[in-house]
Specification:
Layout (H helix, E strand, L loop, with lengths): L1 H4 L6 H4 L3 H17 L5 H12 L4 H22 L5 H18 L4 H7 L5 H15 L9 H9 L2
Length: 152
Protein backbone atom coordinates (compact mmCIF):
# COMPACT_ATOMS: atom_id res chain seq x y z
CA UNK A 1 0.00 0.00 0.00
CA UNK A 2 2.81 2.45 0.87
CA UNK A 3 4.47 1.94 -2.54
CA UNK A 4 1.33 3.36 -4.17
CA UNK A 5 1.18 6.34 -1.80
CA UNK A 6 4.91 7.03 -2.00
CA UNK A 7 6.23 5.60 -5.29
CA UNK A 8 9.99 5.52 -5.97
CA UNK A 9 11.45 8.98 -6.62
CA UNK A 10 12.49 8.18 -10.18
CA UNK A 11 9.03 6.87 -11.08
CA UNK A 12 6.65 9.03 -9.03
CA UNK A 13 5.59 11.42 -11.82
CA UNK A 14 5.24 8.68 -14.43
CA UNK A 15 3.30 6.57 -11.91
CA UNK A 16 0.69 9.33 -11.58
CA UNK A 17 0.65 10.22 -15.28
CA UNK A 18 -1.93 8.80 -17.65
CA UNK A 19 -0.46 5.65 -19.24
CA UNK A 20 -1.34 6.91 -22.73
CA UNK A 21 0.60 10.11 -22.05
CA UNK A 22 3.57 8.11 -20.73
CA UNK A 23 3.47 6.00 -23.89
CA UNK A 24 3.28 9.09 -26.08
CA UNK A 25 6.32 10.64 -24.37
CA UNK A 26 8.25 7.36 -24.67
CA UNK A 27 7.29 6.96 -28.35
CA UNK A 28 8.47 10.52 -29.03
CA UNK A 29 11.79 9.66 -27.38
CA UNK A 30 12.16 6.54 -29.55
CA UNK A 31 11.38 8.52 -32.73
CA UNK A 32 13.97 11.11 -31.73
CA UNK A 33 16.55 8.44 -30.94
CA UNK A 34 15.95 6.78 -34.30
CA UNK A 35 16.94 10.02 -36.05
CA UNK A 36 20.29 9.90 -34.23
CA UNK A 37 20.87 6.18 -34.76
CA UNK A 38 23.47 6.57 -37.53
CA UNK A 39 24.95 9.95 -36.56
CA UNK A 40 28.60 10.59 -35.85
CA UNK A 41 30.08 11.18 -32.40
CA UNK A 42 30.05 14.98 -32.72
CA UNK A 43 26.31 15.17 -33.47
CA UNK A 44 25.52 12.73 -30.66
CA UNK A 45 27.61 14.82 -28.25
CA UNK A 46 25.74 17.97 -29.29
CA UNK A 47 22.39 16.26 -28.64
CA UNK A 48 23.57 15.08 -25.22
CA UNK A 49 24.61 18.64 -24.43
CA UNK A 50 21.16 19.91 -25.44
CA UNK A 51 19.52 17.30 -23.22
CA UNK A 52 21.61 18.56 -20.30
CA UNK A 53 19.79 21.88 -20.68
CA UNK A 54 16.27 20.46 -21.14
CA UNK A 55 13.88 21.52 -18.39
CA UNK A 56 12.20 18.64 -16.58
CA UNK A 57 8.89 18.48 -14.70
CA UNK A 58 10.54 19.47 -11.43
CA UNK A 59 12.07 22.61 -12.87
CA UNK A 60 8.78 23.77 -14.37
CA UNK A 61 6.99 23.17 -11.08
CA UNK A 62 9.66 24.89 -9.01
CA UNK A 63 9.74 27.91 -11.33
CA UNK A 64 5.96 28.24 -11.33
CA UNK A 65 5.67 27.79 -7.58
CA UNK A 66 8.45 30.25 -6.80
CA UNK A 67 6.88 32.81 -9.15
CA UNK A 68 3.45 32.46 -7.52
CA UNK A 69 4.90 32.73 -4.01
CA UNK A 70 6.88 35.82 -5.01
CA UNK A 71 3.82 37.51 -6.55
CA UNK A 72 1.65 36.61 -3.56
CA UNK A 73 4.29 37.85 -1.12
CA UNK A 74 4.67 41.17 -2.91
CA UNK A 75 0.89 41.52 -3.08
CA UNK A 76 0.63 40.77 0.62
CA UNK A 77 3.31 43.31 1.41
CA UNK A 78 1.55 45.95 -0.66
CA UNK A 79 -1.82 44.83 0.77
CA UNK A 80 -3.38 44.87 -2.67
CA UNK A 81 -4.76 41.37 -2.34
CA UNK A 82 -6.22 40.32 0.98
CA UNK A 83 -6.09 36.55 0.35
CA UNK A 84 -2.51 36.43 -0.93
CA UNK A 85 -1.36 34.13 1.85
CA UNK A 86 -3.93 31.53 0.81
CA UNK A 87 -2.09 31.38 -2.50
CA UNK A 88 1.22 30.70 -0.78
CA UNK A 89 -0.45 28.02 1.32
CA UNK A 90 -1.90 26.37 -1.79
CA UNK A 91 1.46 26.46 -3.54
CA UNK A 92 3.15 24.95 -0.49
CA UNK A 93 0.52 22.21 -0.32
CA UNK A 94 0.95 21.41 -4.02
CA UNK A 95 4.74 21.26 -3.68
CA UNK A 96 4.54 18.99 -0.64
CA UNK A 97 2.05 16.72 -2.40
CA UNK A 98 4.32 16.57 -5.44
CA UNK A 99 7.43 15.88 -3.35
CA UNK A 100 5.73 12.99 -1.56
CA UNK A 101 3.54 11.50 -4.27
CA UNK A 102 4.78 12.85 -7.59
CA UNK A 103 1.47 14.46 -8.40
CA UNK A 104 -0.14 17.85 -7.94
CA UNK A 105 -2.73 19.72 -10.04
CA UNK A 106 -0.27 21.28 -12.52
CA UNK A 107 1.49 17.97 -13.33
CA UNK A 108 -1.10 16.61 -15.81
CA UNK A 109 -0.95 19.89 -17.75
CA UNK A 110 2.85 19.89 -17.78
CA UNK A 111 2.94 16.25 -18.91
CA UNK A 112 0.33 16.94 -21.59
CA UNK A 113 2.76 19.52 -22.97
CA UNK A 114 5.31 16.71 -23.30
CA UNK A 115 7.59 17.79 -20.47
CA UNK A 116 9.64 14.83 -19.34
CA UNK A 117 10.97 13.74 -15.98
CA UNK A 118 14.69 13.87 -15.21
CA UNK A 119 14.72 10.07 -15.43
CA UNK A 120 13.22 10.10 -18.95
CA UNK A 121 15.79 12.66 -20.08
CA UNK A 122 18.58 10.64 -18.47
CA UNK A 123 17.40 7.49 -20.24
CA UNK A 124 17.60 9.26 -23.60
CA UNK A 125 21.11 10.49 -22.79
CA UNK A 126 22.15 6.93 -21.86
CA UNK A 127 20.94 5.58 -25.20
CA UNK A 128 22.78 8.36 -27.06
CA UNK A 129 25.93 7.46 -25.14
CA UNK A 130 25.42 3.81 -26.09
CA UNK A 131 25.00 4.82 -29.73
CA UNK A 132 28.12 6.98 -29.45
CA UNK A 133 30.02 3.91 -28.25
CA UNK A 134 30.56 4.94 -24.66
CA UNK A 135 29.52 1.45 -23.51
CA UNK A 136 30.03 -1.91 -25.14
CA UNK A 137 26.84 -3.37 -26.61
CA UNK A 138 25.95 -5.42 -29.65
CA UNK A 139 22.43 -4.13 -30.36
CA UNK A 140 21.52 -1.27 -32.67
CA UNK A 141 17.79 -1.21 -31.98
CA UNK A 142 17.01 1.97 -30.02
CA UNK A 143 13.93 0.39 -28.43
CA UNK A 144 16.13 -2.29 -26.88
CA UNK A 145 18.73 0.30 -25.85
CA UNK A 146 16.06 2.46 -24.18
CA UNK A 147 14.72 -0.60 -22.37
CA UNK A 148 18.27 -1.29 -21.15
CA UNK A 149 18.60 2.30 -19.90
CA UNK A 150 15.23 2.07 -18.15
CA UNK A 151 16.08 -1.22 -16.51
CA UNK A 152 16.03 -0.99 -12.71
Amino acid sequence: MMKYIFPPTTQRVAFHTNSAQNAQIRDHTIRCLNTFKDCDEHILSEKICKLNHEWDVERYLETGAASLVLVASISGFLKTWCCCFLATGAVGTFLLQHALQGWCPPVPIIRELGVRTAEEISNEKTVLKLLRGDFSTDTGDVSELLAMAEKQ
